[in-house]
Amino acid sequence: MKKILFILFSFAFLGICHESYAANSFFKSYKKMEGTRFCLTGFTNYPPFGYIETQKKDNQSFLVYRSVFDIVFNEFAQNSQVVFDRVYNPSSPYQNFLSLINTGKCDIIMGAYNETELYKRVAIVYPALIINPVTVITLSQNSDKIKNLDQLKTMKGGISAQDYFTDFVQNQMKSYNLIKENDINVLFEKLFTGQIDYIFATQYFGMIEAIKRGIKNKLSFSKQYIWGMPMFLGVSKMSKNRKYLEETLSSYCQKEDSKAKIENALRNIISEFEIKYQGTVPPTYIKEPQNNVLSSDIREK
Question: What residue spans of 110-201 are helical by DSSP H?
Fold first, then answer.
């Protein structure tokens, strides 16, 4: 009996030592990277995942990069004494920032899809902290007319080129009669003038764009999402610090309260947009017959 107790005690002691060593190794890795600068980039016009806003201080205006993932890197920097430099430019296309990731000139991308060609040179960090769901947007008065997805295939729909979908979802959308518009305002216009019956949009992007135009209350967003797309953090496969960043970010993503923090940040961002655009006069979309083709004029009430 004493021998058995001794063995059990020995295993328990070794377990404690192992955990202690692992913890020390973890903090040593942080210490080793103190002062290291990492490059962050991502979407620049795709709230809440990445967008640029103008802020004012002391009568001076300046641009600030915002993302629902900011809290991750603020905590990372605070706890590990590393520095994250956000790289963005409102006049540069998204592909330019992806090129920085693909070539290893930038380390981390805030927002990436798995199994999607666009991110083939990105090491996806698991698990995802947030789902980017695809919803159906219709005019409020028409929401009850759509009963199921098959019905949508007999109707006219639209998507925005400013929106981002996984390869899987894009393949699924081929079964629908969809037009793609570069300007989401044109897409909303076509919905209001009856040129299309619905819009496929990612929920948060679609909602925020509707808020900005003062038309959210005139629209219906499907209660159940059509496709759920996990949105991940990603590390450049060419980054010289890839292993460190992948392991550290994955550890953060696995923490019990990490998703709750992102969800809270998401609510705050949407609330900020609602406050900022409160009282916005919605555009009036009017059908005008012209050579048997519907055209529209956008003007303020």
Answer: 149-152, 167-173, 184-192
Which residues of the chain register pLDDT less than 70? 1-32, 286-301
> In the prediction, which pLDDT does 20 show?
38
Distances (CA, A) of 285 to 12, 99, 161, 196, 216: 72, 39, 21, 13, 14
Taking the CA atoms of 64, 97, 258 and 223 in sequence, report the sign of the dihedral they define: positive
**Phi and psi, residue 206, nearest 5°:** -60, -40
Provide the pLDDT for residue 43: 97
- Of the candidates 89, 50, 53, 92, which has an alpha carbon nearest to the alpha carbon of residue 233? 50
- Tokens 């159906």 -> residue: 136
Q: Are 200 and 132 in contact (CB under 8 A)?
A: no
Q: Are 159 and 136 in contact (CB under 8 A)?
A: no
208/279 Cα distance (integer angstroms):
15
Pairing of strands 156-160, 198-202: parallel
Give the Cβ contact number of residue 214 at 10 Å: 15
Beta strand 227-236 pairing with 219-221: unpaired
All residues at 6 or more sequence positions from 280 whose CB lies less than 8 Å from its CB, including other chains: 212, 213, 214
Q: What is the DSSP string of 110-123?
A: EEE-TT-GGGTTEE
Alpha-carbon span 98 to 106, nearest angstrom: 9
| CA–CA gap between residue 152 and residue 146 (Å, rounded) | 7
* 49, 53, 58, 59: CA torsion to nearest 10: -170
Give the whole-angstrom CA distance, residue 152 versus residue 150: 5
Residue 278, pLDDT score: 95
Total residue length of the chain = 301
